[in-house]
Amino acid sequence: MQVLAIHPEVVVAKSVKWQTTCTLVHHGDETFLIDSPLYAEELESLPTLLQQMGWGLSGLLATHGDFDHVLGRLAFPDAALGVSETTAARLKAEMGDAARRLRDFDMDDYVQRQRPLRLGDVQALPVPGKLDIGDSALELLPADGHTHDGMSIWIPWAKVLVPGDYLSPVELPWLQEQGSREGYLATLGRLKPYVEQAEWVVSGHGGPIDGARALAIMREDVAYLQALGEGEEAAEKALPIARRDRRMLEIHADNLRRVAGGKGGS
């Protein structure tokens, strides 16, 4: 796991799997862990990382309900988990789904863990809204489209945006089963003023990037999503050059099927 301090009060840890990120944000006497790494050893290192920083954990936050973002409970089983109201509803409706997906992941990658994933009670946070931290507050922004739930998090004093699985330098916009092309475009439009003033953007996959690069990715993503609504040929031409490897072409094909089937937005 790679660890990078992008601000005196913001530390990003990037998993070796899927370049999944988790972000520690500290202010005053409070610290929140946003999202999670994947492997057992990475999760087990988080309490030591906090101890080295001299920070005490106040709670966990997850940008959305995909299993690879809610594993903080494995490192901190007694910590409160805060999510958007839409994610809280999703986790309730999909009871046990994250644990099942984690078991499948572990079997595929031969991973052994000390305990099973138990989310327990989650705290539903009003989004849009704010979450107090020290004498400041995190700004919580609606972020649907990739999935039907979620939030992005703006850290105002550090000028850091944690958008969830948006603005990734390594992953195409991905319309998952209940995602929406129109919702994704709306989320990008909502995030634009924050990206324009951001020092850093920490996507759910790919590690921290500066605001200028994030804006360039946003332009590519908007063009790609718009082209998805114009047919396969237009979408093929709009594929970002840096995101055309085998896995991205699989995601692209999945997006085309969803849009053609009317499941990913018109």
Describe the structure.
With 266 residues, the chain is α/β, with parallel strands linked by helices. It has a single domain, classed as Metallo-beta-lactamase, Chain A (4-Layer Sandwich), CATH 3.60.15. Helix content is 36%, strand content 23%. The chain contains eight helices and 13 strands. The chain has helices at 40-53, 72-75, 85-93, 97-109, 181-197, 211-228, 232-237, 246-260, and strands spanning 2-7, 10-14, 21-27, 30-34, 59-61, 81-84, 123-125, 129-133, 136-142, 151-155, 160-164, 200-203, 208-210. It has a seven-stranded mixed β-sheet with strand order 1-2-3-4-5-6-7. Strands 8-9-10-11-12-13 form a six-stranded mixed β-sheet. The longest helix has 18 residues, at 211-228. It is globular, with a radius of gyration of 18 Å. The mean pLDDT is 93.
Feature tags:
266 residues, alpha/beta, Metallo-beta-lactamase, Chain A, seven-stranded mixed beta sheet, six-stranded mixed beta sheet, 13 strands, globular
Give the termini distance in whole angstroms: 39 Å
Strand order of the largest sheet: 1-2-3-4-5-6-7
What overall geometry do the principal axes of the alpha carbons give? globular
User: Could you tell me the mean pLDDT?
Assistant: 93
What CATH calls the topology is Metallo-beta-lactamase, Chain A
Ranges where pLDDT stays below 50 over 5 or more residues in a row are none
The portion of residues forming beta strands comes to 15-25%
- CATH class (first level) name: Alpha Beta
Tally the helices: what do you get?
A: 8
- SSE series: EEEEHEHEHHEEEEEHEEHHH
Oligomer: single chain
Superfamily at the CATH H level?
Ribonuclease Z/Hydroxyacylglutathione hydrolase-like
Largest sheet entry: 7 strands, mixed
Q: Based on helices, strands and strand pairing, what is the structural class?
A: alpha/beta
CATH architecture annotation name: 4-Layer Sandwich
Question: How big is the Rg?
Answer: 18 Å
Integer tally of domains:
1
Instruction: Count the beta strands.
Output: 13
Helix content: 25-40%
